[in-house]
Amino acid sequence: QLQASGGGLVQAGGSLRLSCAASGLTFGDYAMGWFRQAPGKEREFVAAISWGGGTTHYADSVNGRSTISRDNAKNTMYLQMNSLKPEGTAVYYCAAKRDYYRHYDSSIYTYWGQGTEVTVSS
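The structure assignment produced for this chain is given below.
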């Protein structure tokens, strides 16, 4: 029900825009989040956005370099990532849940996309 895309190989300092397309759910009823998992590490919070897009939060590691947004008419969420660093290399996942409570906690998200791989070369 969630399909992440837009990953790829990029040089440090470059940009990528990830997309997450939703189907089979009322997209506007869900808070959305981006998480990432680097090789050998636990999944970590990247960014979250409320139902209408009016509230957003970012991990310190991406704050100021990334922008999360959503288009409820298109059932799609985005993550624009700029000034990418090699430590941003990971599989990025999108996720959805009904409320914005503990938006940083991956364990309470209901739906997950399959992940899109981002590799940042130095």
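Interim note for the steering committee: The two ends are 34 Å apart (CA to CA). The CA atoms of residues 94 and 110 lie 11 Å apart.
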